[in-house]
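Problem statement: downstream parser choked on a complex file, so we are re-checking the raw output for the glutamic acid run. The parser issue turned out to be on our end (a line-ending mismatch), but while we're here, posting the original submission so the record is complete.
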Amino acid sequence: MPADGPARVRFAPSPTGWLHIGGARAALYNFLVARQTGGQFILRIEDTDRKRFQPQAEQDFMDGLRWLGLEWDEGPDKGGPYGPYRQTERAHLYRQYAEQLVEQGHAYYCFCSPERLAKLREEQRRKKLPPRYDGHCRHIPPEEAKRRVEAGEPHVIRFKTPREGSITVHDLIRGDITVANKDIDDYILLKSDGLPTYHLAVVVDDHLMRITHVLRGAEWLGTFPLHGHLYRAFGWPEPVWVHLSTFLKPSGKGKISKRDADVFRKGHKSVLIRDLRAFGYLPEAVNNWMALMGWSYDDRTEFFTLDDLIAKFSLERLKPSPAAVNFKKLDHFQGLHVRALEPGDLARRLVPFFHRAGYPQVTAADLLPIVPLIQTRITTLDEAPQMAGFFFRPQVSPKPEELVPKGLTPAQALEVARRALAVLEALPDVRAETTEPPLRALVEELGLHARQVFGLIRVAVTGQRVSPPLFESMEILGRETVLQRMRQAVTLLETLAQQEAAA
Ligand code: GLU
């Protein structure tokens, strides 16, 4: 449990692609820390990489976070006391802090051309050395460097990593990490376009925004010592650091590639939040699933609502080891959360899926009676229109052959259909308790299996072989529709039986 009062935490995505489970899980954990401690959750857009910038990404993050229920307290769209919350709108700040480091001897101007750096890289590659800046500009006298900058010469600002000694940084779940300074590059802090690199921007912003806990991806472990150096050079107190576990392919072997992502999508699975939403996963299920990839409460409890997570989350129980993405688990959580919804709530959430599937007139009130029939039978919400669309079609069009039960000829099936229709016509209504006993009696009388008779009626009235429970479905369809669809089945079977006889 993050003690020490309200935490200020942030989700700081780079708008270079869609929100995926890696980012969303980091956002979730940060959100939980904020809500649990009565602190603030901040959304900061790290858009200083202009080459990889994607204009729709920011909106996608916001839509995804809101859908997951991870509302932020401060951010680019709502402002806050430490704004602006887009790094490109804070550009002037970074230069000022970079220059402060230059003045204090912790950083220096570098004028090396891209060509020189490329040649250096090439040489290092040939000698099998790690790519490293060689310190060429490290010793340019400050006045000379200043003059060249003022004359407009292209430059960057690099960190002047100490050449001796080592640095120790502390991760809450990984412990102390010690690195020899000679193994740390003179990283660029301010680029030639005047914008900061991640390393400078993250340190400056986390400090200025009074961030108390940094929960971020393990891909930043490599440059974590540099960030420690920067805090110490500025003389700022460090936040609590936590580097979250990485995600692996479902097989547990290696990181998820773009190719994997395409394969997932073909199987109606995805690591993108926008896809999971479109497929009809519940945000509750996605949160539950993500929360347990890298954290556990007691290694037993598996069902968590967002409120449960707020109450029970603890930083100490985050796991540093990588987690294989398991979509079966996602489906499992989806099942649990679908069953846990109030019927009215599920009905409301199903509406857009019916609209998209071609039933634009369907309302939540229409769906309410159907919900009990499908709530235990669907996994993703987009399965509901396939399963229950027949309630809203003016007509169904069963394939005549599908009306013929296994083991019967078309002529025999026609006889069954006629008898079933006669039973239904004689009844005053089609409530389940009215229709079931006489139809079961018919099964007995015909000496058939229930499966054969009810299968035929199912195809006749729903148009499909798999449907919600038959008697309850007929009750919802109503007497007129049931009779009309049964008559249609009789007609279809008459034609089929005639064709068969003629053949
Ligand atoms: N912009 C960084 C990223 O998207 C943020 C990492 C962090 O949380 O500090 O990876």
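For whoever reads this later: Residues 32 and 153 are 47 Å apart (CA to CA).
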